[in-house]
Amino acid sequence: MLATRLFTKNNQKIFYMNKVLSLVILASFAFFASCKKDSATPEYNTAQNGSISVEFDNIVGTSDLQLNTGSYTNSSNQVYKVTKLKYFVSNFKFNNIDGSVYTVPQDSSYFLIDESDVNRRLAKLKIPEGEYTSVTFTLGVDSLRNTMDISKRTGDLDVTGVATDMYWSWNSGYIFFKLDGTSTAVTTMGGVFQYHTGGFGGYTSATANNLKTITLNLSARGSAKVKASKTLGVNVHLLVDVNKVFTGTNTISLATTSMVHSITLGVPIAANCASIFSHDHTEN
Questions:
Q1: CB 238 within 8 A of CB 278
Q2: Measured distance CA(246)–CA(252) in Å, rounded
Q3: Residue 180's beta-bridge partner residues?
Q4: Are 84 and 67 in contact (CB under 8 A)?
Q5: Mean pLDDT across the stretch 217-232?
C-alpha cells in the first residue's frame, strides 16, 4: 500500500516537472522568436535610392495612338488624325504608404513627352526605397522655371534645342500641351487643327494659369515598390487619352475651334487635360 502511494506521488512529481519544463521551453521559444522578429532587416532602406520611371502611354479611347495614320472619332462624332503630340510634365512627388511624401529635386523633374520619339515617353527618376501608393505631377512648367535665366533651363527645357517648338518667346513662356492634326470637320487651313496651350499666370502682366496638378492613386492597380537592388527599377504605366481633350469639363468641337495659339483660348482645353491621365498598372 505504501509502495503504491510512493509510486503515485513520484508520478505526480514527474508530471509537474514535465509541465514546468514545457512551459519554460515555450517561453524561451517565444522570447527568441520575438528577438528574431525585432532584429529582422527592414524591407526598405530609405537611405538608398532606387530607380523608378513613369511611362506616358498615349492612346485614343481604347486604341493606341498612331501618328499620321490612325483615324479616330471624338465625342462630337468628328473624325480626326493626330500629327503631333507633345507636352511637359514636371514637379514629381511620390506618396509613401507610411504617410510621408518624397519630392523629386526640381532640377531632375522636367520632362518633355513626345509621341514621335520612343525615347521621350518616360520620366526616369531616383527616389528613396519604399512603397509608394500615389504620384503627383504637374502638366506644364511652373512659373519659377518659366522665368529663370535661360542658362537654368537646360535638358528638356532647352529653348534653343529640344524645346524650340514648345516655347512662346513673349509673355507666356512654355507651351504646356501641343496637339496637332487634321479633320474633315475643319473647313479652313486645309483641314488642319492646332491646340497649343500654355500660361503660368504671367511674367510682366497677368494671364490665365493653365498649369494642372495631377494626382493618381496607384493602390488599385499596383503600388510602386522601389528598391535599389532592382536593376531595371520600377515602372508606373500611365495611359493618356487624347480623346478626352475634346470632352470633360468642356466639349471642344473641331468645327468651331480649330486653332488655339493663345493662353485665353487654351483655358477650356487645359481644363479637359486635367482628366486625360489614368494609372494602368505598375511593373515592380
A1: yes
A2: 5
A3: 84, 194
A4: yes
A5: 97
Give the number of other CB atoms < 10 A from CB of residue 94. Answer: 26
For the chain, the domain total comes to 2
- Which among 67, 108, 72 has a CA at the least distance from the CA of 90? 108
Q: Are residues 71 and 198 in the same domain?
A: yes
Q: What is the pLDDT of residues 56-95, one digit of tens each?
A: 999 999 999 999 999 999 999 999 999 999 999 999 999 9
Q: CB count, 10 Å around CB of 182?
A: 19
- Return the ∠ at Cα 61 (arms to 58 and 64), rounded to 5°: 40
User: In terms of domains, do 111 and 11 share one?
Assistant: no
**Please, which pLDDT band fits residue 40 given cuts at 50, 70 and 90?**
low
Any idea how long the chain is?
A: 284
Within this chain, do residues 97 and 210 fall inside the same structural domain, yes or no? yes
CA 9/CA 134 separation, integer angstroms? 68
DSSP letter (8 states) at residue 104: P
Confidence bin at 39 (pLDDT 50/70/90) = low
Q: Write the burial class of residue 201 (CB in 10 Å: 0-12 exposed, 13-18 middle, 19+ buried).
A: middle
Half-sphere exposure of 202 (CA within 13 A, CB side): 6
In terms of domains, do 96 and 219 share one?
yes
pTM for the structure as a whole: 0.85
- pLDDT at residue number 202: 87
Going by the DSSP 8-state scheme, the letter that residue 243 receives in this structure is: G
Report the chain's C-alpha Rg in angstroms: 30
Q: Please list, in sequence order, all residues whose beta carbon lies within 8 angstroms of the beta carbon of residue 102, skipping any fewer than 6 positions away.
A: 93, 94, 96, 127, 128, 130, 132
